[in-house]
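[step 3/7] fold_predict: job queued, chain A
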Amino acid sequence: MSESPWLAAGLTLFLWWFSTGVILWRVRVADNGTPLDHFNSVIIGLPLLAVGVAAAKASLPDLSAGGIYTAFLAALALWGWIELAFLSGIITGPNREPCPPFVSGHDRFRRAVGTVAWHELALIITLVTLGLVSLHAANPFAFGTFALLFVARVSAKLNLFLGVPRINTQFLPRALSHLPSHFRVGRITAFFPLSVSALTVLSALLLERAINVEHPGMSVGYALLTCLCLLALLEHWFMVLPLPDEKLWRWMMPAAKPEKDTIEDANGL
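[step 4/7] structure written:
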C-alpha cells in the first residue's frame, strides 16, 4: 500500500466526511420509521463491529503501511458502530429526561453525565481493551487512533456542557431530543482556548513525527493521526465560528418525517 502522506491525508478527510454522513443518513432513515428501526440499525451494523475487532487484531504485528491503514480503519469501524448505537438511542445512559432550566452546578453535571454514561463506558472499555492488546505489539495505531477520537470527543462534550456560541442539533434523532437541554449556548469559557490549544500542539507534535520518523509505515500512521487531530480541531472551531458545517451532510439527508406521522406509523395507523 502507498506510503504517501498525501494519500493518508486525503483518505482521512474522505472517511471523516463519508462515515459521518452514512451514520447520520441511517439514523435519519430509522428516525422516519418506527422505534424498532433504530434497534435494527444497530443489529445490521454488527458486522462493522466484527470487522473492526478482526482488523485490529490482524494489524497488531504488522507495522507496514498496509498494517497501519488496517489499524486505522479498524479503530474507525469500532468507533463508528458505537456512535451508531448511541445516535440510535440504544447505548446512551440512564437519564433520558430533559434537564430542567433551573438546575445548575453539580446536579446539572450529574444529569448530563447520566445522558451519555453507557456510551462513555462502551468507549472506555474499547479504549482500555485496545490499549492492553497493544502494549507489546509492533503496531499500536488502532489504539492511538481510538484514543485520539476519545480525547477529542470528551473535549467537545465538555465544551458543549460548559458553553459555546454555536451548537448544531439539527441532525440529532428523536431518541436524543433531550440531549440539547444539557448543552449551554453562550460565551466560551476558559476551557475552550485550553482545548483548542492542546489539539493544536498535539497536531504539531504528530506532524513532526510524520515528517521525521524514519520508518515509512510509522510515517503513514502519524500522518493519519495528524489529519484526524486537525479535523477534531476544526470541529471545535465549528462551535464558535459561523460556518455552515451542516451543509456538508444536509444534502444527503432525507427530510425529517413529522413526529405525528412517525407516531401513527408506529401504532399501525
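[step 5/7] annotate
Confidence is low (pLDDT under 50) at residues 262-269.
The first helix runs from residue 5 to 31.
exit 0
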